[in-house]
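Question: Send over one sample?
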Amino acid sequence: MGPVRSLVSTSATLLVAACSYAGLLRPSVLKQVTPPVAELVNELPRVDRQNEDIVGRLFAHGGLAHAKTGADGVMRVVVRVPPDQLIWEPAVIVMPHSGTLEIEFQNEDHLTHAALLPSDGDRVLLGLPMHTGGRARIRLDEPGMYTFGCPVQNHAGRGMLGIVMVRGDVPEVARLDRPAQRQP
């Protein structure tokens, strides 16, 4: 039975390693699961009904995508509006650096939506009638976190919120002039 047990153990290890949930078991992740975070995760199934609770959806429900840079230097990503869910999918978009982002929206819902997006201090509005799509091109020249949402009725308040995270460091000219801070 030794070889069979070894095969089963190896197979189980490979299955867990291949599963995206396995990353949650890393010590660096587990130490972030504080009681308030655990309470939030445990509450998610109960706040998933848009019309019964104030918090309809959270960013985590839509998932995450990394924008891919094309040959022209423009980063691109596709965002869906699944039917009857009032979420963006993905709801979190990660840009590897600042620049131009083109988002292709696909509205698969039976409701009309719109995407109100940030673009270097301005806003871009893209209408999304039911069962249609469209593209919006925005420019984000600074690292940081930017939010977008659906301004139709109370869709944003019911969960149609998204985040664009632009990776990178603050430019030298924008840094505060202060003494070096002790790092934890």
In short: The longest helix spans residues 2-18. Residues 143 and 172 are 12 Å apart (CA to CA).
